[in-house]
Amino acid sequence: MQKHGNKVDHDILSEMDVLHRCVKEALRLHPPLIMLLRSSHSDFCVTTREGKEYDIPKGHIVATSPAFANRLPHVYTNPDSYDPDRFAPGRDEDKVAGAFSYISFGGGRHGCLGEPFAYLQIKAVWSHLLRNFELELVSPFPEIDWNAMVVGVKGKVMVQYKRRNLSVN
């Protein structure tokens, strides 16, 4: 922030590549939706990596789980580890394996139109929190509650915070 003073705008948030990768990795490990559903508009065939074929008839519902797909070991190195640099230029694990390897916001023609705004909003909130506060998780890391359409956590999450002393230049 020293480069920009106290000003935070769209352009500055767009430059926050490390924070963007951190948020993307958190959403890879903890996507907000359990399942994505689509209706097939035509007959098509799917071939697995193992060569098994599945015919999908027109009108059938096709489902995928971001929570499962975002942890496939043939797509992500150490898929259960938090590693934001997996999305860094030159590594780009989500792109190397092919289209739709990262589906926290869906994909294809029906991907979430709000994805860019979601990243902008999340980065605005976290850039403020990280700059102004020291944060510490004091409760155990929360368990995931899979019982709702939008995934949440079970119980309470307790975070201790302390305001940072910021110098004004």
Automatic annotation (TrEMBL):
Its cofactor is heme. One of its GO terms (molecular function) is oxidoreductase activity, acting on paired donors, with incorporation or reduction of molecular oxygen. Belongs to the cytochrome P450 family. Gene3D superfamilies: Cytochrome P450. This is p450 domain-containing protein. Keywords: Heme, Iron, Metal-binding, Monooxygenase, Oxidoreductase. It comes from the Eukaryota. Pfam families: p450. It comes from Cephalotus follicularis. Heme binds at residue 112.
